[in-house]
């Protein structure tokens, strides 16, 4: 705020000026700056200033009053609505800034959790709906007002419950002819009351009456508020098949039965009968016709069958051994125990039990089983390293009960490679290459599994190495034909002691530069391999490789040279069509390298020649000619080759071999039938081998 007092003459007087300013207090303290200015415009002009800072404290609020007339109403299992009336007092500085709505919850019969803020509401809110609530829970709510002076006292609800869970279990046990003990486990619910019903022989359900403790109207058990595990005794149980059912009752608002009460679903008990002797039990072990090992503990186990629901109080196990000696072995509440058979042979066993009834129950059916020794196995062959195929696995077996089946398993590096199941009489097995051929230098685990006549199984294993011998060294004869192809005739070597039979061979051409090409494989003895494009007038080799049935190999290098005075063109994907260039054969070669030239400024005034850079691109051409005496068949054959094949292999007497695109010309004087003249322009391509 600014106030101007206008022009005044002070004449040396002291003059006091005042200005009143009103400010509004707020929740927090405020600081104000006050300034005064004195301005003299005439005479001795000048300006003077004075200022002072003033702090105005914030409003001091009092702790607010809590909401009044607060109520909580259950809407459903997931919602409760709270409502209240305002109770603020602004004159006493007890105004409301916010309303806090809190809750705490217990779940599934457990203890109550901690308080937590659910919602901070505006000061003028008069209700709030708690949502997202859960069934089978116990809630408590509270509200309070808040301002800078603090939080009011809280207003608390009582406990508010949602629909309880059904009892976890209902168990019925017959105590006597007319007495049944019913146990209700409601440990997962907030119990206020438990209601029981009963039915007989699958009939209609009816509320219980009497018993201990005495049931009230509609089958409610007395004085069990808060008790989660309840036992009630039916002292007048009817005869027959009896079953019970129980539910949990819970008032919504604390223990107030005058308002809404919620009920769980029913939980049903087992069905029992009045006390009777047990039925025959079921023997679980030993199994019918089972096999067990002599002098080793075995388990005898059974399942009692008590229609009245009572527990086993005693049991008798009758055992008859191979000598037809019978003993009774007594047990109490155990339904299994260990016994050790001392002799081999056939046994039989049966069991009966006793429950709450005074009489023993019926005997079970007999279970017959065998006690024996494990089969005794020994693998005799192979006794050492496996060096030949077929190889034999031989073994011996000793078992007084006989042998019912046998299985031979061979593994290599942990992987099963061979399996054969045989009858009980087999004692050896020959394994040929067609059945299983082990890799050379592998290690085999040979396992025999034997099932005795008793049904007992045992196994034994041996580990054997594989070392196949090499075959005999092969032989080869090399000739050439009229097409200047190489003919390689392969002969198998005769095996000596320690060598394998040869089953096949392959032929590989080895060029002077060391490059290799497979010419033929899987050749038999005395079989021919044809190489259609060997180099001419050049020393090279063929490597002939012999293979045994086991995959071992041996090779022989054979020298080769194909002499020729003519150039040769081979056509077709297999190079099987041949043209021998006739007399007066001429050849010319041309090589052209791709380059790029550039003129650079020299700066000295002289004319600059270009600089050239190689592009690593080569064009190679060959021009060949040939002349033949007139021959109609040859004439037509040359034309057919020119028509049918754009590509060829060219071999010349120098030993050069190139793969080319062929542009062919052929001419003759038809009238005089003079010589046939042939020429071809051959463009060299990237080398390819024929398909053999």
User: Regarding CATH, which class of the domain at 568-600 and 610-685?
Assistant: Mainly Beta
Percentage of residues in helical conformation: under 10%
Number of strands: 49
Parts with pLDDT < 50 across at least 5 consecutive residues: none
Biggest sheet overview: 7 strands, antiparallel
CATH fold call of the domain at 568-600 and 610-685: Elongation Factor Tu (Ef-tu), domain 3
Task: Describe the structure using short key phrases.
1 helix; six-stranded antiparallel beta sheet; seven-stranded antiparallel beta sheet; mainly beta; Immunoglobulin-like; flat; 692 residues
Please give a structural write-up.
It is a single chain. By secondary structure, the chain is mostly beta strands. Among the domains are: 105 residues, Immunoglobulin-like (Sandwich), CATH 2.60.40; 93 residues, Immunoglobulins (Immunoglobulin-like, Sandwich), CATH 2.60.40; 90 residues, Sandwich (Immunoglobulin-like); 86 residues, Immunoglobulins (Immunoglobulin-like, Sandwich), CATH 2.60.40.10; 109 residues, Beta Barrel (Elongation Factor Tu (Ef-tu), domain 3). Helices cover 2% and strands 51% of the residues. The chain has one helix and 49 strands. Strands 44-43-47-48-49-46-45 form a seven-stranded antiparallel sheet. Strands 5, 6, 8, 9, 10 and 11 form a six-stranded antiparallel sheet that branches. It is flat, with a radius of gyration of 56 Å. The protein starts with 29 loop residues before the first strand and ends in a 7-residue tail after the last strand. 25% of the residues are buried. This is Fibronectin type III domain-containing protein. InterPro entries: FN3_dom, FN3_sf, Ig-like_fold.
